[in-house]
């Protein structure tokens, strides 16, 4: 490929990226645009993110993570401004009762698909909450992807009584 052709393709690619970025400024309500760091190649968007209010102890963040790429993306860990430790949790049946436990290997967000994080299901568990979460507060959550990239979103604090599951920390 000639140098001129590569230069034109590079310029066209840059214009496309800038055009798409400009279009993204009109996000729909309830959608948090992704804030990504290199080398994240995934375009994840978190729709309707929220976090359970808590003065201390445990809380959880929820929402629907949408993958707008043609490749599966794996979320391997998370951090939060409200807690020094966040665990990826799944909820399963253990001895006839619902139990939440750490999710080994992370969550796969399918190509051009989504994964819902909800009460009584998969969620981001905020352990040892150090900053109280009140109704209306905005809590920053950062997801780390298998490729080393990150995606950040802001979750709205909401009152929620919680499910009837128990915590099984040693099960994974």
Automatic annotation (TrEMBL):
TM segment ranges: none
A Pfam family of this chain: PCuAC
Keywords: Signal
Keyword Signal set for record: yes
Positions in coiled-coil regions: none
Signal peptide: 1-21
Protein name as it appears in the record: Copper chaperone PCu(A)C
């Amino acid at each position: 490929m000639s140098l001129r052709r590569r230069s034109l393709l590079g310029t066209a690619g840059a214009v496309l990226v800038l055009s798409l970025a400009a279009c993204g400024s009109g996000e729909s309500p309830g959608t948090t645009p992704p804030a990504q760091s290199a080398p994240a190649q995934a375009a994840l968007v978190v729709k309707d993110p929220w976090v359970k209010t808590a003065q201390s102890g445990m809380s959880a963040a929820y929402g629907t993570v949408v993958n707008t790429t043609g490749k599966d993306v794996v979320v391997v860990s998370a951090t939060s401004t409200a807690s020094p430790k966040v665990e990826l949790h799944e909820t399963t049946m253990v001895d006839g009762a619902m139990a939440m436990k750490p999710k080994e290997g992370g969550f796969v967000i399918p190509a051009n698909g989504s994964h819902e994080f909800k009460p009584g299901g998969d969620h981001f568990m905020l352990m040892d909450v150090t900053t109280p979460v009140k109704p209306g507060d905005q809590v920053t959550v950062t997801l780390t992807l298998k490729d080393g990239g990150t995606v950040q979103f802001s979750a709205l604090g909401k009152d929620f009584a919680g499910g009837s599951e128990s915590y099984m920390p040693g099960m994974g």
